[in-house]
Records
---
Amino acid sequence: CDPFLMLGIESSCDDTAAAVVRSDGEILSSEVTGQAALHAAYGGVVPELAARAHAERLDIAVEAALAVAGTRLAELSGIAVTAGPGLIGGVLSGVMCAKGIAFGTGLPLVGVNHLAGHALTPRLTDHLPYPYLMLLVSGGHCQFLIVRGPDDFRRLGGTIDDAPGEAFDKCARLLALPQPGGPHVERVAAGGDPGAIRFPRPLLDRPGCDMSFSGLKTALLRARDADVAEHGGLPERRRADLCASFQAAVADVLAEKSRRALAVYMEEEAPTAPSFAVAGGVAANEAIRSRLETVAAGAGARFIAPPLPLCTDNAAMIAWAGIERIRAGHRDGMDLGARPRWPL
Ligand code: KG4
Ligand code: ZN
């Protein structure tokens, strides 16, 4: 019966998160504990360390989510947990935690695809009607999806190699900026000339919505080395130009591919309330976001970017996807498994 409360659990990468969400879209709590400090010395997420940290922190996260929401397990109507895709150790930790609670309380258990969690977020934040177009753009993902229902996604294209966030992180590493690199590249880019260096716009000459970003870092490496050779080091102004030009190349590719994806969506779905939503850490980038906003406006679609804490990894989106799944009659048993690979 409505409204009901759902607990969400997320541990598929390097954030341990738990949340309580009400079925009318009210977020009662959303606790996220990152592991940046844990992995900082290794230059990337170490799966074994991540899994152990999740196992240690999940109970604490769940207790905190319940306390902040001012609720008890007995008042919930279900438990939603990320069952993949992601790092297997972390996903397993979350699934085991959720199963334990479901077993102890008798509450229904719902396994959620992490990507579906991201993709359904605009329904939680903006009550967006189906079907809408979604660009998922983070450190690990980059794809266009037409979202038609809680379990009905049509993939229009995506990256064939690196995700844009990954490319930003590599760009930052090459220019001796801190990790995660996106926000730092954006900050430095603000003082540079986006037209200074002509980086490639991969796959723009080919039809469709697929993208490629791995060539950009090679181009950046070459441009940086040329500068270093010429100036005997990298002057601040050139570093700013490199960041600005790199960001412009990513923005150009995302904008043009979004334009194409929107055209397919408008033509084939004929939506009555056309909407284009973005999610993922890269959606935090102002330059990229304003380009996407312009593209949406040009196609006559509403543009939606959920607030950043709900764009990046969190458990509120998992609870919400669980709410949508339970409403649609889905339910998982104690045999729910962890799926490291799980395309939508
Ligand atoms: O969605 P997210 O928090 O985590 C996953 O990848 O799942 O995204 C993190 C990624 C990182 O690669 C980070 O560098 C990038 O998003 N990012 C940005 C910005 N803020 C975060 N990239 C470009 N510009 C930004 N302002
Ligand atoms: Zn994610």
Note: Strands lie at 5-10, 15-22, 27-34, 78-84, 109-113, 132-137, 142-149, 152-158, 275-279, 302-304.
---
Amino acid sequence: SYGIKALLEKGKDLLQQEVVVNGWVRSFRSNRFVALNDGSTINNVQVVVDFENFDESIIKQISTAASLSVIGVVVESEGAGQEIEIIAKEIKVLGVAPSDEVQGTILQPKQHSLETLREQAHLRFRTNLFGAIFRVRNSLMFAIHKYFNENGFVYVNTPIITGSDAEGAGEMFHVTNLDVNNLPRTEDGAVDYTQDFFGKSTNLTVSGQLEGETAAMGLGKVYTFGPTFRAENSNTSRHLAEFWMIEPEIAFFDLDQNMDLAEDFMKYVISYAMENCKDDLAFLAQRYDKEQQGKPAAERSELGLIERLEYVLNNQFVRLSYTEAVEILKESKPNKKGKFKYPIEGWGADLQSEHERYLVEKHFKTPVILFDYPAEIKAFYMRMNEDGKTVRAMDVLFPGIGEIIGGSQREERLEVLDEKMKKFGIDPEELWWYRDTRRFGTVPHSGFGLGLERLVLFVTGMGNIRDVIPFPRTPNNAEF
Ligand code: ATP
Ligand code: MG
Ligand code: MG
Ligand code: MG
């Protein structure tokens, strides 16, 4: 019994052998040729059904989307597609798929829009496109674990239900075990959320960083890789309410080392996926390149998907301070009108994604690492620079994506951290455990957060983050 991927890889070595293959029918041509796929590869194997050998009742049950178990003999294929095909000796129809019912679904073999495919996310796995995307996603996840484990990192799991709001951004999902019909109230009648979780206010994690830092201040090099939740009430193609984040955290590590790590890591995982998903990426590249040709010249990517990936692997990321970036942006003419939608307001303002993408796609044409941001626009835990105005933050910006990684060197000096918390209105009592890492043997340390789905977007060339996660969670999407 062979998976179709292994079967096609062995190819002619299997000639004349009897094999068992299982799969779903992608098409049944001339009542004779079944294209069978089992999800292991983008390629189908052709099963030849000679009708003189089969009951008409069996042949009638074979149709698009039906599932089969076939015993057959491997022979050389005369068609152009694969080296081999299978002459069926026995066919078991495991599950039929009546044609009139398939008609109303995305299983019907024709072009469906990505929106339609999204509405039937539970069936998308059967399509070539989503098969390719999810195998690439898997390969990237595996490469991530491989990279860190080969480099001495310890994988730690940080809590999903937590009392801490790492970013102070307030985009949190509340978690409660209270009876919603009988919520405890404070004296002025407001819901008393402090009673949430057996007497403590809790939310779903927005980042495992603060807990990850405490692990690094003992284990040295750690990474977390888990689901992350943000109540993003906006409809962008780059934000999900539930996404997967990879967060390495390293003790005795400064921002320059952090930038080196981010670049080396990104190149490793991208090159791993390119090596291990050649067929899938060739298919995705075809889709991407065709889509680019349909765009107006100004929006078109100059490089095809594979060229773009290779370009990232073969070129150094540009490193640029926030201050230098603002200078460049003030002087740029991004389009015919010569203006950004949100003009750069000068030093101190947060960059919009149009600014980030301009730097990457038009100005440098390579990934960019921006560092040393104004302290006011970044989180409280980032290390203050000697200038007293900027912090040791970094954002890695990628073409077609914008921000893909956010990271920093962390403030290791307790008195500076306390000062910062005060400024940001954070109660030091609540973060007593975080402060402890600075009280007992504090060391310089750094880390970053990568959104898995933004990485998958980049590698697959897909345009919408909803199409690179099996079941996207966005404001209007919690069906499955
Ligand atoms: P953005 O500016 O795009 O909203 P952020 O600065 O809020 O991102 P961080 O808090 O720095 O994000 O999180 C680290 C990384 O997690 C980001 O660089 C990005 O890759 C990813 N990320 C953040 N928010 C989301 C989201 N809502 N959906 C998917 N990925 C996300
Ligand atoms: Mg955000
Ligand atoms: Mg950001
Ligand atoms: Mg960020």
Note: The chain has a mean pLDDT of 94.
